[in-house]
Amino acid sequence: MTIFRIVLVGVFTCTGIYLFASAPQPLPDKTALFTSKRSVNVGNMFNAVNAVNHAARAIYTERIVGVGLKLGLKFGEDWAEPEVEKGPLPALFLRLVASRMERKSTRLGLYLGSDEPINKSNLFDAAQSVSFEMMKNTKQAVVMPVDVVGYVGMYPDVASSAPCVTCHNDHPDSPKTDWELNDIMGATTWTYPVAKLGADAYLNATEDLFQSIEEAYGMYIDKVAIFNPNIEIGVRWPDSDNLTLPDRKTFMAAVRKQASTIIVEELILINPLDPSEKAKEIFK
Amino acid sequence: MLKKVTPDTIRFFALLLILPMAFIGVVILGSPSFSNVVAHGPIQAGHDTLQCSDCHRRADATVRQQIQANLNYVLGRRENSVDFGYLPVTSGECLDCHERPNERHPIYRFREPRFAEAIEVVNAVSCMGCHAEHTDERSFMELGVCAACHDDLKLVNDPVDVPHETLVRDSQWQTCLGCHDFHGNHIHTSPKLLTEAAPVEAIMDYLAAGNSPYGMDKLYKAQIK
Q1: Which of A241, A271, A275, B28 is the most exposed place for a label (fewest CB within 10 A)?
Q2: 0.90 surpassed by complex ipTM
Q3: DSSP B206
């Protein structure tokens, strides 16, 4: 048994050397995310991603849907059906973005809701209605901790352009038909599991959202590519003389440009007292 | 002269053979030819061309790093353990092939706080809330789960001979899937007469991997990636 003991000691020694003495780079601990030299409040991150989302929706609604409708493009709830030559309505565009976010590593949730929704599945529940009323009165975002979910940020959805108002007033299932410009039509809700995040996680969240927007817009552009007659897709935006659509790169360049200032401000000029203040600037 | 073989000698060589035999066993069982032997149940209908690695993906690190990290976790020198060998199978693997823009019940929507009570009834934030691989059924969902979200359903212009409001009031939840395809991917028009709805037996048969009561044609086919 002496030989056996020698072998056993040898095996343990070799295993020890294999695992520790000549050890490879240790795997990063997840807690490293929060040891970044700069950390931000979840409210700052909500402000940043909401600014990104607001930019994408505004550009899509005004420059694609608004102008496109006048040029004969169609947008509808059945846009995803294979034979239908339509694009997603702005609310459905947001849904597409949210579904793409599901595939990203950032645990950031994006939802749309209203107290007067066209689709009843978007109706606020009792708890959300209380926050929404508070938000409508103050016109400020509401950020709060919620059991299980972590943190919730609710931001006003303002009827910022004519297509928002006309489509919702004309829709046969709309429970409210007297919307006016600058009304608060609902809220965009964000969820995130923790109160603070490192700079890396902050930038990952905004980048994942940019990518999700690009993928959502790409799904529309892929659909447009099979329209008959063909529509030019390139660097030009549609205008009164030309029915063209911007490609992914061009669309995203406009979104990034519009949102970039707030992303940097929220990271650098951290306002720990009231993370909802920025919402007033976005929607003023 | 031959040395006498003692029980200790046999034990010694048996112990020495454990590692190489285990290594050979892992290599053989790990080959694709033996995937049916290793799998802990039958494969879902339509998944018969998939490889194990299509869903079971290797963790992103060397085995040595994984052992090291988990030993450190056991010793209290790090806060989180790491996946060993393979990553857990999540909805992401399902969506790689089955994601569609016309999904009627996308899982991401149920992460919203207002569905907190509903997901206690049915774990709709994950494909695995209703589906499991390596079983002989398509879905283990119960027919009453629709009530978790639709118990206040009212339609302005109800097209059905027995109004939805009546069906809800009478808790006729077993009728929902008789007209409505849960994921909305079949080319199927919901009937206007309740008598034309697929019977409960047909729905149960479909959930147990039988034929679809909504027809065989689909709007989007799964994309093999």
Answers
A1: A241
A2: no
A3: H
Q: How far is CA A142 from CA A133, A159, A269, A279, in A?
A: 10, 19, 20, 9
Q: By the 8 A CB rule, do A131 and A142 touch?
A: yes
Q: Does pLDDT of B203 surpass 90?
A: yes
Looking at the complex, report in whole angstroms how far the Cα of residue A126 sits from the nearest Cα belonging to chain B: 9
CA R_g for chain B: 25
List CB contacts (< 8 A) between B68 and chain A.
19-20, 23-24, 26-27
- Return the residue of A nearest to B109 by Cα: A111
Compute the C-alpha angle A81/A82/A88, nearest 5°: 50
CB–CB of A156/A79 below 8 Å? Answer: no
What pLDDT digit, counting tens, does each position of B123-169 carry? Answer: 999 999 999 999 889 999 999 999 999 988 878 788 999 999 999 99
**Residue pair B129/B142 in contact by the 8 Å Cβ criterion:** no
Contacting residues for A119 by C-beta, under 8 A, at least 6 apart: A173
| Amino acid found at B111 | R
User: Which alpha helices (H) appear in A83-233, and where do they start and end?
Assistant: 90-101, 126-138, 162-170, 199-224
- What is the distance of C-alpha B65 from the center of its chain? 29
Cα→Cα distances A161→A164, A175, A188, Å = 6, 20, 17
Cis bond upstream, residue B159 (ω within 30): no
Phi first, then psi, for residue A28 (nearest 5°) are: -65, 140
State how beta strands A150-158 and A196-198 pair: unpaired
Given B82, B99, B111, which is nearest A109 (Cβ)?
B111
Q: Which two tokens stand for residue A217?
A: 């817009």
* Residue of chain B nearest A77, judged by CA positions: B102
The mean pLDDT value for B75-97 works out to 90
Q: Which residue of A has its CA nearest to B67?
A: A19
Q: Which residues pair with A142 in a beta bridge?
A: A154
* A49 CB burial (10 A radius; 0-12, 13-18, 19+): buried
Q: Which residues are bridge partners to B58 per DSSP? A: B86
Q: Would the CB atoms of A125 and B68 count as touching at under 8 Å?
A: no
